[in-house]
Amino acid sequence: MEAKIPLSHFISGENKLSLNLNQHSHQAIRNEEYVVEMRGIVKRFLDVIANDHVDFKLKKGEIHALLGENGAGKTTLMNILYGIYMPDEGEIYVDGKLVEIRSPRDAIKLGIGMVHQHFMLVETLSVAENLAMGLKTSFLNPAEEVKLKVKDVMEKYGLKVNLDAKVWQLSTGEKQRIEILKAICRGAKILILDEPTSVLTPGEVRELFKFLRRMASEGKSIVFVTHKLKEVMEISDRVTVLRKGKVVGVMETSKTNEYELAKLMVGREVVFELEKAPSKLTDPQLKVEKLNVLGDRGQLAVKDVSFEVRGGEIYGIAGVAGNGQRELVEAIAGLRKVVSGKIYIGGVDVTNSGPSSVIKLGVAFIPEDRKMGFVPNMSVAENLVLKKYRENPFSNRFFLNYDAIEGYAKKLIEEYKIATPSEKALAKLLSGGNIQRLILARELSSGSEVIIAVHPTYGLDVGSTEYVRRLLLKRRSEGVAILLISEDLDEILSLSDRIAVMFEGRIVGELPCEKADIETLGLMMSGAYERR
Amino acid sequence: MIEIKLEKRPPPSKIEALIYSKISVAFALFVSGVILKVYGVDPVEAYKIIAFNVFGSIPGISETIVKSIPLALCGVGLTVAYRAKIWNIGAEGQLLLGAIAATGVALFTGDLPPYLLVPLMFLAGFAAGAMWGAIPAFLKAFFNVNEVIVTTMMNYIAIELVRYLIYGPWRGSKEWGYPITDEIPDAAKLICIPGTRIHIATLILAIASSILVYILITRTTFGFEIRVAGGNPEAAKYAGISYVKVVLLSMIISGGLAGLAGTGEIAGIHYRLRYPESISMGYGFTAIIVAWLARLNPILVIVTSLFFGGLLVGGYVMKMMLGLPVAMVNIFNGATLLSVLLCELMLQYKVKLKIERRKLT
Fold first, then answer.
1. Taking CA atoms, what residue in A is nearest to B229?
2. How far out from the chain centre does Cα A219 lie?
3. CA nearest B7 in A: which residue?
4. Is the dihedral of CA A70, A72, A76, A81 positive or negative?
5. Structure pTM?
6. Number of C-alpha atoms within 13 angstroms, CB side, residue A121?
7. Where are the transmembrane segments (chain B) (predicted)?
């Protein structure tokens, strides 16, 4: 027997909300067709204008894509709707009534839920316990009470999660589902998803889209923030395009196409297909033999992995995050101890010899976690020589030569179009995309023999992605050996010469690029290939 | 409804930073003033007397400088450790080790001329302080032992070591049984500016170390490594910077400079080893505030150490001339530290007070 508890029971302070709204009841009632209407939103950060008189309208029951490059102001706009920022100018109407959203709590009361790019979950608690947080529940054993309620919601939308599992045991896709569940349990009628697919595998994306459609058909309104054109075309009913803080287009998805959207978003024509000239292969530059590496929890994360990458070749490793890729590249970069097996760079054995000797042999490394790749409180110039400060002309043995460092930085800033006030500005002032450019500039500029690129275009917009991919291909044609780790199968397919798939710490298969397609790779990534 | 919101603000200009520090000092003076008032002393009069005897007269100024020399040396050392995000709380113990080593050299090396003996004392002082700093650094670098605990505890070991020496093996033969060592030979005594107790050699060392450490941090490859390791340890590892080297070297510099301060106190002021609290009066702890108030800038440490030197002298003045308890100095220090923290907050965040108004249209 299941006790039915009305959803509203869980939403704290609903009564207060109605009082707040009464306050505004004498305001002109706006068009009821829109559940959210943001008018003339302006938000400035210091001198930068993130939202410049943005109008945004969300219809009931629609999936509305908010499309734009990095720094176009998508996330800022949604953070305003969710009460994280207050707008400098502009008005927000929810259900036709003028509201002031001062904090996420206000937003939740108004039925707005947001799923951030980075999940806000307590890893050591169970799913049910995480869901119970922020809900009005009984004092004792709140998780049990929540479970009953959540089961209904899960069935209604087809969102399946094991409620008793601890969060750290779950995959990224499942964690995202919890976040969505959390929003719905708190009574969200309007759901904002900030770049939801950037952390998912193709299979998980399909799942997500399935229950997004289901939720929309149940009358929920969904804002889908993204910079991926394919997804806009696949999932959305309408699309609003932002460029440099301004709305440059609002249209029905069925009446537009990828090329038009790309042009609107970037402001120029974009080439989708990259030309990959055949390149001359040289000797293996990176060789890994029967490598075994431990993960953070002491489990064997990389199992008997062997491969080699020749100069002039891009070797792609596809796989869902958490299948040992991070541990593998960290071992190659000298950041993680190897249990057994060998790593050779340019023929030299570097097994367990530490990061500095690997760097000296000319290995560039674009890490998965950008935080690893820069020092926020140091200048852009200093960050650009992070691995080279010991070399001439940037220093003699003891003293740094700031003229040389800053001259070099100016060159890279221009070449890689890093948007920074000056080379002396602190790196923490840069936006995420520009920090990525900074890391790429440092790692891809120098005469390295081997490049390890982990998600090199993660979080980059269309224009920058195109640029980075071209650059990788250029280095390939110069004879550099490139190890590419990515979850983005399009990226793997368009760049790699050979593709391997990692699953549960093993390489489960290796294909030449010509023989690989998304379906096969997707199957291999899910582990089905091995079992078959 | 009133709501207080903190919003990130742009990094302050140098002038703004200066103004805020002034405001924070004024705030500290105000808080202490209220306490003085409650105690029954007119704060304005008290501040006048303190100011005259601290900054307003030659003996006052010279005493302030005397107190600020060890503060500056310890403070400069701490900027190195703190820049590397190594929380050295042990400057007090490192200073005492320097004092022990200097006394030992002075008492037991026989008849050396001053131009040999004095440098030897400073070298020994630096080495002993550095060794005392290197122990927690070693434990941190190789066994990941928390340096806050180790450095703090090693202060007590140093204090007890001094006590043991003055009660035990080093107790002076000519001192009628008092727990102090014999006076060091004249050759070991530092030359002072005539009419003051300012020992010139240590003063020069303090100023020189502040400039050298500034250059070390901002201009050298090792300083670069310290800043990377302190700013983002992950990135330091990623860039191939040796964490062991950064931890060990920065603690050696930090402890060594505190050791120099200890040497200066022995060779310039006390001329013998005595009760640890007489040698140091908590210089190593006060230096923590000195370093932070200077925003970990070794040049500014000179300024902030003069300020705290003044506060210490002011404490004497309050005790001797105003008849106030020693606790007042502690209140001064405490109030200042609190307002430094507040000031730091103001420099990083905009404090927004929002008063909700009902819209009537």
1. A375
2. 28
3. A85
4. negative
5. 0.74
6. 31
7. 20-40, 60-82, 94-110, 116-139, 148-166, 198-217, 238-258, 278-294, 299-318, 324-347
